[in-house]
Structure formats: structure tokens, C-alpha cells
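Researcher: I'm comparing several assemblies side by side, and this is the next one on my list. It has 845 residues spread over two chains. Same procedure as the others: predict the full complex and return the structure.
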Amino acid sequence: MTTQVARRWAARPGGGPVAARAALAGVLLLAVAACTAVPPDSAAVPTPGPPDVRQIAAGGEPANAFCTVRSSFAPSGVPPRVIRDRGPGQGLVAGVDPSDATMSHWNAETQQFEGFNIDLLLAVARAIWPGEEPRKRITFKVVPPGQGAFEMLAPDHPDRVDLIATSLTASCERAKQVIFSNDYLDSGQTALVRRVDGRPEYAGIEQLGGRRVCAAARTTSLAAIAAYRTADGTLPVPVQAAHPIDCLVMLRQGQVDAVSTDENILLGFTRMTPDTVLVTEPPRDNARFCRYHDGRRPCTWFTDEPHAFAFARDNPDSLELARFVNHVLESIRASGVWAAAHRQWLADHPDRGQPTPGSPVTSWPPG
Amino acid sequence: MVRPAARLLCHPGSSPPVSIRAGRTRPASRRRRAAGRTGARMTVRVEAGRRAETSTTTLTRGAAQPDRGGPARWRDPLRTTPARIVVHGLLLAALLVATAVVALRAGGPATTLGERSAATAARTGTSARQIYVGLADADVAASAVFLLPPGEDRAAGLKADYQRKIHEVEHALNASMGAAVDDPDRLAKLAAIAARLQVYQRIIADALTVAEGPGTAANQGVLASAYAREASHYLSHQLLTAAQTLWDYDTRLLREARVDARWWVAASLLMPLLTLAALGAVQWWLWRRTRRRLNAGLLVASAGVVAVLALAVASWSHWPAADSRFPELARAVDAQSATQQRLGTLLAGRADVYLGLGASVDPVGHHEDFDSRQLCGGPDGVDCATLTAVWTARQSQEPDAFRRAMDAVLDAGPAGKSFDAATTALTNRLDEGDKVVAGHVERLPATPRQFGGLAAWVTLLAGAAVVVGLRQRLAEYR
């Protein structure tokens, strides 16, 4: 390189050995300067974000193909013997999601778990151990949302739980892994967006094509978002977080454009954050998802979400517990416990009241 | 290399056996011995080198008559003497450039071996450590803020504690940035930490706004805790990483100075020697092809390179002492690094406990994080028996279990005291380590005056002399 430059200089008109020497000296100085130069340090500031957040590929099974389960084993009034015989200080172990403000949140003031699911579980404990303080008979363990909690039903899991009560959608796919109780709450998936000038930033899910929509990992909500296709054929950009509450944080920080999950969960989020609001515009062709919507306001659901408790499969004790829970669900319909819990935690949730169970099944998964 | 241009075969006895090669006469007895070995008859062979331009004969005739030296198809233009002179010149130029670059670049490594430079590095390393530990400590305080509902008496004190620790970190950052105006790299690293700290503070401020805003305490706690969890994750993965990078940058001179210098001291001495050898070889080659004349330009260049060698020796005169004393210093700095990271891990573990006990949605994850840090037991570890009831407090069926757990982990409780004791032990060890490092630094030799710039100029002058000398020789061929 040095030689070429020197020769080129020498070849110029009027160039000669002197010019070549000058070129050589210049190149040497440049080489010395280049060797001593210091590269600038990049100081880009990384954006914050909850742990384990990532964007996933859009596409997949269309939402209208999701199969739901609204049947379970016949109710039984016989308390599960294995659980009933547990000693004092022990009892039912329930997996709950503390980020679910309406269903099962931790109240630091009262120092206990509260919510709709918690009230139903307390009713189950009361039925197993009548006359005892139900909270002394239930251990609430925090479990991941969606089917991430299923492994904790395994008998050899160190943090084993007897049942899962995490606003779980009873889907046919999940029924291959767990037993479901009867449906205890009907809801549907919708979206939460930022409030701008008192109105939703995006009117409905149809406006979220190409926008980042967050849902918790390993949930049917995330699968539905990944499969959703708007009228003009665009797809939302699915973003998964470890917990739904992480999605709410990201929505407020502008890292996503919407949070999508069941309306009963999103209602809790709107109570926490007045700067967010549920979308108001119904999706196209969603009538089949609104069969259990009370019609008080436009139905924005784009999935059907029967909620049920989950139990371990292929386990007689779990089956016994599932049948007993189905019995309790029937009894609290009559006693008004379900309605009272709904009034306290889900007053503005647009369902049609406690669901009526389907015909009992004798084998699992139901056909 | 020397091929016969012509051969004259004579009968034995007709003339004295003489071999003429490149202007040298060889005794006939040696040729006879060679002929006897091959069974050849006695011959008289007059050899003129195929490269006639290199022979004395050619040199004397070269100016008037172009050298033919054999058929044209045998001649390679790149192997002519002028071409070879140019090639040798380029080789020497490359060596001289390398020598100059080494002389210039070696100044830094040589300087870092000196006591003053090491003392500066030790000082900045200490300030980087204060930033690192201060950040981890601030995160502990921030996590504790969200442990209690906003109405709690102790909540205000915890919030004030967080703000005080953030101010301490900001103060340390500002002081370091003020002292780093002449070090753009360090300034950029400090600016990166400051920018990340602002992001962290913004997350915590949002969390406090949520926690203290309208709504039920339960809702506030869940969301505020989600912010706190994000903030802690950001601090662990972004802020502490940046602070560790700064500390590594500040102390790399102490940890790697000797290893770096080893290569530079070798290069600083070997390059001039290599260049000197090349100059000698070219001088010898030219000397053989001229009338035993020494090339003046090459002689001057050789003298210059000898001077460069002397300057290199002077610049590295402190090497033997530094080489023997730096390993201890590097070990002391590595020990400080390990202790600092242990303290950072301890503080992060304390934040795990606070987050896990608070309203976080992932208490199991925080527990697993804590376990993975391996903080239980040992002289600077935590008494993890004090935490057993803490991890299960939210699951407990006893009404006061959560309250008791909070009391246990805050400062006056057994778990809090255990953390405090471990923190104090590690902080004391760091303070002691600072003294050890300072002692090793004091024993380092002073850096001698560096002559890298002067050596580079002398090398460039030597290069000029080479060009002049070879150009003169080249001109003789034209």
C-alpha cells in the first residue's frame, strides 16, 4: 500500500523521488496516527423491560377453531378423603396467580389472598372442613399463569398443589393434560389499551393489526393473539411476558400497544390504572363468542373462555377432589356465595351469571 | 544462484587451470579435487555469472553497455539488481515503520508499569467500586420500599433510605465524571451508568406513584411490585453490568499491565534488532556487488536504529523491578474484584428476599434467584435459617406470619441483622483489600522518561537515510 502510493506519487507529472518520499512520510504518519486512535465508546441506553419478555411469531390456529370444555365429572358430595384427613395446619393446597386483581391477588394490608377465585376456594375448604376457619385449611401457592402451572400438579413436584385456580380457560387441548371442574365463570378475550383523551387509543382488536399486543406466556390468550387476523389481513405482533401484570407495566411504558387476555382479568387492570381502558369496538364476526355475554355493552370478546379449576389427570384422589368441587360449585349457586363473590369482585364483568354445567362425563378427556 | 555464462574447455596442460567466478580466483587444486570426485577429466572452466550485472566485469561496463548476461528469455526483470534494490528498500521501510509504531505504542504499556499510573488506576478503581456497591445497595432499599403498604409507619423511612442511597450514587458518579474529563473512554462509561440510573429511577418513581396513588392497597401493591421487579431486573442486568465494566476498565491496568507489557518490551527491543540485522544484510549484499564500498545511507540508518534501541532500553529500564512486583498487585486486585462481586451478589440476594416477600407475582422465581446466588453460611454468608419462614409467609395459614416475616427481614430482625453482618464483613474486607493494593502500588518502580516519540522520529530519519542511500546506488545503474 505504502509502495503503491509512493509510486503513484512518483508517476505524477512533476512527481519524482522527492514526491515519493513525501508520500511515504505522509503514509507513515497516517499509519502511526491510525495505530494510536481510540474508538469511541457506545453509550446507548437500553430500554427497561420485565424479565423474560420476547416477541413471538404471528400465525397459527385460527381463534374460532379453539375448542372449549364445559363438562366435567358428575358432582359428588363425598369430601376427598386424602385431603380431608390431612392434619391441623395442613389442608387444601391451591395454586393461584397473585397478579390477578379481581380473582386472586395478595393484599398486603390484610396480609392474605383475596379475589373471586379465593372466595370459591374458601367455600370448598368450608365444605371439606365444616366448622373450621377455612383460611387455616388452605395453603395458597403462587403458580405461573396458563398451562405453565400444570407441572405443579405432579405428585412428585416439590411445590405440589392439589388444584389450580388461575383464571384458567378450559380448552380441549389442555384437557389432554389435566381434569377440569365444571365451568364457574364465562368470559372472553378482549384488549386493554392506553386511554387518550378519555377514549381508547385503539377502538378495537381490528385496529391492532401490526401493533404489539402482549399476553402471558403459555396461555390461550397468547395463542389467540398469535392467530388473530384483522379484516384487512394484517396480524397483531404477539409479545409474551411471564405474567399478565408485566404486560400492564409494558403498556404504560409504551413498550406494547395493548394487553390482551380475559376480560375478568383486564377489569382488574383498569381498576389499578385509570390511564388504561378496555377497547369498545366489537371484532367482526364474533357473535359465536358472545353467547355468554350479558349484552349490557357491546361485546368485544373474540374468544370463548369458560373458566374452570384444574386437577391432575390419572389420579383417583384428584378425580375425587374434582367431583367434590363440582358439588361445591352447585351448592354455592343455591347458597348465593357465588353471586356474592361476583358482586364483590366482578360486578362490572358482562357475564350471564354462574354457568350451568354441561352433561356429566364418565371418561376424560370428554368426547 | 550463480550460473555459468560460458564455459571454456581446455586440454590438460595447455593452460593453468583457473576458475573465475564473480571476480574471484579459486585455486586449481580445489577444482581438481572436485573433478576427481566426479571422475571428470581436468578442465579449465571460466565461469562468468549469469547475472553479469552483479559481477565486477559487468559493473565496470554497465554504464556504457547494457548487460545482456545471456539470452533475453532467461532474464527476469524482477530479479535485476535495480529491482532488488527497490525490494530491499521496501523491506527496510516496512521494518522501520514497524519499529517506529512499536516505539510509539510501547509508551503506554511502559507507563502503566509505573507507580504513579498504578496509583491512579487504584484510585479510580475504588471510585468505580463505590458506584457498583452503591447501586446494589440502592436496589435493596428500593425493594424494601414496596415491602410495606404505603400507610405503614416504616414505609416513609424506607423510602427516605432509598432516596438517600440514590443520592450517594449520584454524588459518586458526579465526582467520578468530574475527575474523568481527560479520559473520554471512562467518561463515556460513567455517562452510560448515569443514563441507566435515570431509567432505573424513573421506573421506581412510577412504582411509587402507583403505590401511593388512588385505589385499594391490594391493587397498588401488585402493580407497584411489578414495577419494582422490573427495576431490579434492569439494575441487575444493565446497571450493575455497566458498573462492573467500569471497574474492569479502571483496574485492567493493574490486572493486565504486566502481561501487556511483556509483549511490548519484547517488541520494543526485538524490532530495532531485527531492523539492524536487515540493514546489515542489505549493506553486506551491496558491499559485495560494489567495489567493496559501504553505503553511507545505510550506515546512517544503522546508527539511527542503534540509537532507537538505546532509547527503548532506557524507556523500559523499570521492567525488571515491575515484572517481579506486579503479580502480587494483580492478585490483590483480583481478590478485590471477587469480594466486590460477592458483596454485589449479597445485596442482590437481599433484594430477592424483599421482592419475594412483597407483593411480587413471582415469589418462587425470587426464591430460586436467591438460592442460585449461594449466599447461605460461611464467614461472609447469611444465616438462611432466619429466612425459612420468610419464603413461605404468604402461603402460611397463620394470620401474623407475614408481619413476622417483614419484621425478620428488616434491619432489626434476625434475617436483616444477618444480612447486615455479612455486608459489614465484606465491606471491611474490601477496605482491607484497598490498603493491600495501595501497599503493592507503593512498591512499584517509578516510570522512567519515555522516549517513544523521539525514537519514532529517529526511525523516520533512518528511513530517509535508507531512501537516500539506496537511491544513490540505484542512480549508478542508470
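Model: For your comparison table: Residues 1-65 of chain B have pLDDT under 50 and may be disordered.
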